[in-house]
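Table S2 (text version). Query chain:
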Amino acid sequence: MKLNKIYSSILLSTLPLTPALAAGLDRSGQSIAAFLQPGNYAEAGISVLDPKVQSNQLKVNDMAEDYYFPSAAIKVQATEHISIGLLYDQPFGAESLYPSNNLVFGANGEATQVEVETHNLSALIGYQPTENWNFYAGPVWQTVEADVSLRGQAYISPKDPTKVLSGYDIKIHEEEAFGWLAGFAYQIPEIALKTSVTYRSEIKHKAKSVETHKLMPMLNVESQLDVITPQSVNIDFQTGVAANTLAFANIRWVHWDQFAVTPKFLNAASGNNLIDYSDDQWSATVGVGRKFNNQWSGSASVGYDSGAGNPVTTLGPTEGYWSVGLGGQYSPAENYFIQAGVKYFWLGDAHAQTGGNIVGEFTDNYALGYGLKIGYRF
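Corresponding structure-token output:
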């Protein structure tokens, strides 16, 4: 099965464009697929996730907020053997808000809530000694910021009622830090085969945090908080399997099992972390893409995520998922396309805990994801 370069590049961009919903705080999946596109290429996209995370046991109808995150990339083939690129995404995050009238997670008209936001800018340079091989590396600039509020009976220790964290707030001010990535790719364009392995380092942030407590009006603890976003490995593979058809797969590992956020006052008052995870995340997506004609192509995929351990924090009480996704692509001309996708997630049941105490179980959770992307070859 021989494919010309224009045709194979169209097939290579037929991937499932839908947002990730993964273990821990993982969001974007940190793909570098745009950098591995042939020739000069640019893209911009937006993903939206609409989750429903509930607990009949705790009378919580839904604590997960909708969120969206943009992405963008540009790749330039500077010479026959050198390529450069710039990728933007929001790799980690969280958006949760419990109902304020729920006594377990609300008090005095206020509710437990969390907002975590990150921004990543990855600069890459690639060396292609032959048409088949590509070795790449580069620095990664990242920012992290967060706001967390704890309210309700869930944050009063049943073993020691003097340990009351209901009323606790922490603001982690935006802080920037640097990491790096490196990897290699092998391809045979004529049969739409491409495989890549990409490693991203952990990134160590030393952020300013301010802790306050509604029950202690004079409390205002400012300290330096260590936040280390985890290292990860992405393995991607795709190949033509029949005329007009390719198969693709992605495997991702994220080192969550040593992740912990330990604010000074909270740890002294309770002996616990604000957020931590007990297991590493493993996820996989497999699927097929098909070109129907010169303008239209589509894809279908299934996915699995292991989660990062159970019990989990009350700030994100799900454990992994199974998913199915569909994507479509319209190419009005050979040099640009518009892509859209949708994905349904069956979220895993989880026991939520605070301070090592099980609060309750969250079950029958699900999410819908939507994505839109525009790609341009120049």
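Notes on Table S2: The mean pLDDT is 90. The chain has one domain: 5-377.
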